[in-house]
Fold this sequence. Notes:
The chain is of the alpha/beta class. It is about 30% helix and about 25% strand. Strands 6-7-8-3-9-10 form a six-stranded mixed sheet, sandwiched between helices. It has a four-stranded antiparallel sheet with strand order 2-1-4-5. A hairpin with a 2-residue loop joins β9 and β10 (about 255-260). α5 (about 135-145) crosses α6, α6 crosses α7 (about 180-190) and α7 runs parallel beside α8. The longest helix has 18 residues, at about 210-230. Residues about 1-10, about 15-35 and about 270-280 have low confidence and may be disordered. Magnesium ion binds near residues 81, 82, 203 and 204.
Amino acid sequence: MPEKPQEAEVPEVMLATETAAPKRGAEEDKAGLLAVHVIRAVGVKRIFYLGGEPVNALRGVDLSVKRGEYVSIMGPSGSGKTTLFNMIGGLDKPDQGHVYIDEVDVAALDTFELAWLRCHKIGYIFQTFNLIPVASAIENVMFPMLFAGTTQAEAQQKAAELLKRVGLGARIFHKPVALSGGQQQRVAVARALANDPAIVLADEPTGNLDLHTGEEIIRMLEGLKEDFHVTVMSATHDHKMLAASDRVVYLSDGAISHIKRREELDIKFGTLQGDDKGVG
Ligand SMILES: Nc1ncnc2c1ncn2[C@@H]1O[C@H](COP(=O)(O)OP(=O)(O)O)[C@@H](O)[C@H]1O
Ligand SMILES: [Mg+2]
């Protein structure tokens, strides 16, 4: 019997875009002939109403992110980072504008297609870790795979490998309560990678961690970007967490104020602690 019953249920709209995404060389990238962006936000607006008063959480955001890029979204509390992540992660829809994931308009997906996108294409990491407290580390990492139709044995093996990769090989049967904040966030990183996502969205992943532990998590995300060829979008309001970024997008009052490339950043890991060896 075939062991992956969900495989046949990949929404056609997703299959079409995956096969349509051609292999690209540096020359093609340079020429912009096949500028395939894994994320494209076009004129994204989101308005909330609080007591009848409009709150312009996003005022028309345009942003394209390439496969394998590490983009940090930098902005103070209330600038719209989470709202933008919710749009890109398919958890909310723009009032105006469009979000394309692999050139598929997220707003055009039906419930099943959206669920498929969230499960397979995107890994989520939150400030508060959001692990299931009654489940062990390995079970937390297995859950998304089981939802996706992976067999128990396969999910178990892969979850153990992922936990080893994030440095938790010796603690796979620990429950979250028996893990430090940094260790819990490592479990969350492993969980985010469970279904081989194209994109990892990390919303203030270091917000509940001390500086050193936060830097380790950012370093880890950077390493995963290299190893798994995953696109990372990480929100922060902390300048010290920008060093891994290929680009930093500055968000202010629901709009992009400016964008800096890696070369333009002068922030290095550890330098603000007087530790020029950085964090390894
Ligand atoms: N569900 C909501 N209802 C009303 N206002 C909201 C809601 N979500 C966010 N906002 C408002 O939108 C703005 C952007 O919020 P958010 O995206 O959470 O910012 P950040 O993540 O950068 O702190 C804020 O003014 C916030 O109060
Ligand atoms: Mg937020």
